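Appendix C: a fully annotated inverse folding record. The material below is reproduced so that readers can follow the format used throughout the book. The structure is listed first as tokens, followed by the designed sequence.
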């Protein structure tokens, strides 16, 4: 997912102004598409693996990247989406290396995530994915030396505790699947740091970055699928249920729509808004997991989900919380002075 981590958009400075109807319609459409695809894409992939016994997660990931290349290339060439940032011919050697490294991280996060869904329940994977800020925070602090507000570190406690509860309360726990999902979560954290560097320092447009990243990602995932997956068990495409290929096509198109809708939402609002909406995706995936796959959630897992979501809310809204606390503190400190002034004026009137 192409997400800016600075949380700034070109509309943020004029957020208090009323949006024109056309822009509001555009934003509403992008949010709806993002929520629908974000809520259904993981369930769709799990359905492909569980119901149709399709044991080729790397191949599915490669098909996602191939679809992204075709769709993004068409949009750019048809000028449906104009990229105002750096063009491919303007990229420095260092920037191209960074794009390639991001492709490696992106491949790893998608591949490990899809492999994990082969072993664990969707609800369990979603709870582990919500710990992504923990890895992002740790990497930015330990490696990049970036300092964060204490509230962000405080939010890690309920997130980690909630994830621990979810693991302990998992009814169908699988160690291999758990390791795959944790690895995918760690690479998601690394990916967000790399994206931040490319979007902020190299000034590459997010849609164009998705296109550039998809090309090496497809090559890497296709080679990994050829080398690591058991092709001897793969039947002829005609032997599979035709509905399987329909679901694979929907999964590929859904992944592209999800990334494009993310770009639109960030452009029209901010990354903070996208992260807050992400909590709705988590809840939606939990509900779909229970509805489609009959997932059994223990009391401990439910408690873990509540703790993790509360930690995510604190993490994502830490700046708003700090601003609110500072305002309250300023009002509290100013109240005695105003009372003293009022008493002085009353004495003068008397």
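Designed amino acids, in order:
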């Amino acid at each position: 997912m192409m997400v800016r981590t600075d949380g700034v958009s070109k509309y943020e400075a004029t957020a208090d102004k009323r949006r024109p109807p056309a822009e509001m319609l555009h934003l509403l459409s992008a949010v709806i598409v993002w929520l629908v695809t974000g809520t259904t894409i993981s369930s769709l992939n799990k359905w492909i693996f569980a119901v149709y016994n399709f044991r080729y997660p790397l191949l599915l990931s490669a098909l996602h990247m191939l679809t992204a290349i075709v769709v993004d290339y068409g949009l750019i060439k048809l000028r449906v989406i104009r990229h105002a940032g750096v063009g491919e011919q303007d990229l420095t050697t260092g920037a191209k290396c960074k794009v390639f490294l991001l492709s490696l991280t992106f491949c790893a996060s998608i591949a490990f995530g899809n492999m994990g869904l082969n072993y664990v329940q969707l609800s369990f994977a979603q709870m582990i994915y919500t710990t992504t800020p923990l890895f992002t925070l740790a990497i930015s602090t330990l490696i990049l030396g970036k300092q964060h507000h204490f509230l962000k570190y405080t939010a890690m406690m309920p997130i980690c505790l909630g994830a621990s509860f979810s693991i302990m309360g998992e009814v169908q726990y699988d160690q291999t699947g758990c390791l795959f999902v944790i690895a995918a979560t760690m690479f998601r954290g690394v990916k967000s740091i790399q994206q931040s560097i490319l979007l902020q320092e190299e000034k590459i447009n997010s849609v164009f970055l998705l296109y550039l990243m998809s090309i090496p990602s497809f090559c890497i995932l296709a080679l990994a699928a050829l080398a690591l997956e058991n092709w001897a068990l793969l039947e002829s495409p005609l032997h599979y249920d035709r509905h399987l290929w329909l679901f694979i096509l929907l999964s590929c198109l859904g992944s592209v729509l999800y990334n494009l809708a993310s770009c639109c939402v960030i452009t029209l609002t901010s990354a903070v808004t996208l992260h807050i909406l992400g909590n709705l995706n988590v809840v939606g995936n939990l509900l779909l997991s229970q509805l489609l796959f009959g997932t059994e959630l223990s009391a401990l897992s439910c408690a873990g989900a509540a703790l993790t979501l509360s930690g995510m809310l604190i993490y994502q809204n830490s700046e708003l919380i700090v601003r609110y606390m500072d305002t309250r503190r300023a009002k509290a400190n100013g109240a005695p002075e105003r009372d003293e002034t009022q008493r002085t004026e009353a004495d003068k009137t008397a």
